[in-house]
């Protein structure tokens, strides 16, 4: 801003800073941009063109989603129904067409109220996801063979999930207002495209992304309502209230946290209580199924079980997994309260969800969708993101090749058990690597790509630039307060007039 006259121009530049150009701060982004003609110009970056970041990223996300649909083409043409192993060898498996008949949608059964034939008894999904599945069933043509109906059911769900993907892309783009192009990490994530239509997780991911956007705009009640709805679709969004509690504790923002917590509780109750009152057994199936489910694909618990002559019981695994998760949460809380600067909300949200994934007794391949938007906000660095994505794509292929191996009979084509264990290990190491990079950014804020560009916590809403009122450890000395961040012109590492340093 050298040479800019003081007064009105300076004030405008503070309140309307130019978006950060990723190709100027990230070597991988700069090299990749050469594939499309080089770095974007000023018109595209400042929005004085129809090709604004939101539109570009939404279209890229939809395009990648469409490529994911094309990747499922072999299954759509018959592999879902006429060959158990071919849906694995083509890596195009999806729960959606199988559950159309398996969970009573083809027969017009009402989720949670009508019993299912067989051992499952009731739909094992949270209520809002069940509503999503039922709406798709209403839109599915009822003519033709059951296979034709199941195909249409998958296509209807794919269209609805594509809307969710577009919502996620828009929300992530707008959460960090000065860094909209970081959302390209999400839009171009190969694991996102490959797993988007395996299950219905994108509904909860979209609601969570919208909640994060609302919090970044200081709308704590709207954040709570959206997060409550997300939790009514999938359990993992509830985890975000933990790191937010610690951050609001450090900043003394109890009123805003109370609004968020209240909004989440009310929204969750509005969706769940009616079903709970009139169909308790059906409503509780999701929770009892999660508790009783044994060790399953993708977890380190499976490696232990398959290499043990006396594997742990389900109850023991549940206990140990919960203790490990609580230990990780305590570590995240300690990190948040002792870090030299208050961590960004997206950083802690990523860490706590990743901890749940790493310690859980099952890791379905679509669970990566939970992390992708948070990773784009927490660590917008192309090298680290692509390393993690490579590990996730390897796991995506590994689980299908392993299932092909176990279902192909005498042919034994696919990946044997030992090979699948290596794929699990690669997924775990990739996630741990990205977690380590986020922790390093928290302990050394000068290494954080977001804070290097002059931001404090653009996804933090009322936490952005707020003073600390409760800090533990060396960070509490010599000053217990951080400076209030007024804009990109503030140098955060400079001692303030109050005598403190950051």
TrEMBL record:
Q: How does it sit in the membrane?
A: Multi-pass membrane protein
Q: Which domain of life is it from?
A: Bacteria
Where, subcellularly, is it found?
A: Cell membrane
Region: Disordered; residue ranges are 1-24, 483-502
Q: Please state the span of the N-terminal signal peptide per the UniProt entry.
A: none
Q: So where does this one cross the membrane?
A: 50-70, 152-172, 184-215, 221-248, 260-280, 317-339, 345-364, 385-405, 420-443
Family annotation (InterPro entries)? GT87 (IPR018584), UCP010361 (IPR016570)
Compositionally skewed regions (Basic and acidic residues) per UniProt: 15-24
Entry keyword set: Cell membrane, Membrane, Transferase, Transmembrane, Transmembrane helix
Q: Which family does the UniProt entry place this protein in?
A: Belongs to the glycosyltransferase 87 family.
Name of the featured protein: Glycosyltransferase family 87 protein
Origin species: Streptomyces fimbriatus
